[in-house]
Amino acid sequence: MEHGGETFYMMVGHAYRLTQRDREMMARYTGRNIAALAREYELSEPQVRRIVRMWRQEYHAKHQPPLALDGP
């Protein structure tokens, strides 16, 4: 999308939530097809990598129990 040369503000520091499109993309992710997914979903490769990173963080948060750091 074009913004007509205007500057725009993008908020930083807010949690990113995976969209339905992101989840569909991750269902097709093989670890070697970032370029293909970027072309298919009209995203840049860094954007796809960011989605993969966020998906991994969400997956681990759901499936890995918190570690007991206080000791026995």
The beta-strand count equals: 0
Poorly predicted regions are none
CA-based gyration radius: 17 Å
Tally of separate helices: 3
* Helix content estimate: 40-55%
Large-scale geometry: extended
Approximately what portion of the residues adopt beta-strand conformation? under 5%
Straight-line N-to-C gap: 56 Å
Sequence of secondary-structure elements = HHH
Label the structural class.
Answer: mainly alpha
* Biggest sheet layout: none
**What's the overall average pLDDT, rounded?**
82
List the helices and strands and how they pair.
Elements: H1 20-28, H2 34-40, H3 45-63
Helix pairs in contact: 2-3
Report on the architecture of this protein:
With 72 residues, the protein is mainly α. Helices cover 49% and strands 0% of the residues. It has 3 helices and no strands. The protein has helices at residues 20-28, 34-40, 45-63. α2 (34-40) packs across α3. The termini are far apart. The mean pLDDT is 82.
Short description:
The protein has 72 residues and is an all-alpha fold. It has helices at 20-28, 34-40, 45-63. Helix 2 packs across helix 3 (45-63).
Main features:
3 helices; mainly alpha; 72 residues
